[in-house]
Amino acid sequence: TCSNINVKINVLLTHILGLFLIHVLFLICIQAHPDTEVHTISLYNGLKSLMPLWVQVQNFRKAIEEIMNQSPEGVHLLCFSQGGVICRAVLSTSPNHNVHTFIALSSPLAGQYGETDYLMKAFPNCLKELVYLVCYHGMGPEISICDYWNDPHHRADYLRGNTFLPLINGEKPHKLMKDWRENFLRIKKMVLIGGPDDGVITPWQSSHYGFYDASEDVVEMRNQEFYKRDTFGLRTLDARGDVSMCVQSGVEHTKWHSNITVFNNCIKKWLI
Ligand SMILES: *[C@@H]1O[C@H](CO)[C@@H](O)[C@H](O)[C@H]1NC(C)=O
């Protein structure tokens, strides 16, 4: 029903150089669920979205915690693009979170390897084949894109030089892995949304935890090592029946959060 006033929805929209209509989704949510509280968290907008992700995660966690504390009955977390990667990190690093449904709207959850306008703005004259040199050996920790830059041709460098995604996805073992996995698995449901006409998330299947192998063929979620080894809880969540995938064609990256069809097909039913 649309009348559960006890559930709050957090809409976390952050985006690389994002200048988007973040309030569209906010308005759609309110319209669909008039008695539900909807919060948007507006941090790190515009160029600030390029700040290192661990810094952003820390501050988003604070903002989300505040809302969670006012909502003992639980919240949903709806996160767009880079925001989805941030939310994933917040979930793993928040021991007592009460997030029921985590919705990732076109987020590079398994990483990004592709030339996009955003990339070109961040690294002018930089070919995607060379970005790893910058990201894994140079200014990596200084810029958000590097935190989920996943070059399939430089796997060892990625594991060594990327201090964000390989930890979040448990590809690189670390001391807190077991805790992070437990924290993440407190969610009741994960909803993954993306599609082939996105144009920014590359490969677009990264929104569904698929990613390139060394030949740049896409390996789907269930054949990924992090899935098979259940490094962060994904296989457990899937075995529980709590991973829902929604693929929508004909949606460009900047249109996901203003498209009413996407909302009706992929999001609405989970905000109860
Ligand atoms: C909205 O989404 C639907 C699929 O859900 C797609 O067919 C349509 O092209 C999209 N419209 C826009 C303007 O993005």
Structure description:
The strands form 2 sheets. The chain has a 6-stranded parallel β-sheet, sandwiched between helices. A two-stranded antiparallel sheet has the order 6-7. The chain is 35% helix and 14% strand. Mean pLDDT is 86; it is low at 1-7 and 14-22. Helix 2 (53-69) packs across helix 3 and helix 5 (128-137) runs parallel beside helix 7 (155-161). The chain has helices at 22-32, 53-69, 82-92, 117-122, 128-137, 144-147, 155-161, 165-168, 177-184, 225-228, 234-239, 260-267, and strands spanning 8-13, 37-41, 75-80, 99-105, 189-194, 211-212, 218-219, 243-247. It is an alpha/beta fold and 272 residues long. A hairpin with a 5-residue loop joins strand 6 (211-212) and strand 7. It has a domain at 35-76 and 89-107 and 174-270: Alpha/Beta hydrolase fold, catalytic domain (Rossmann fold, 3-Layer(aba) Sandwich), CATH 3.40.50. It contains 12 helices and 8 strands. 2-acetamido-2-deoxy-beta-D-glucopyranose binds next to helix 12. It holds the Pfam family Palm_thioest.
Keywords:
two-stranded antiparallel ribbon, membrane, binds 2-acetamido-2-deoxy-beta-D-glucopyranose, transmembrane, 35% helix, disordered N terminus, 6-stranded parallel sheet, signal, 272 residues, alpha/beta
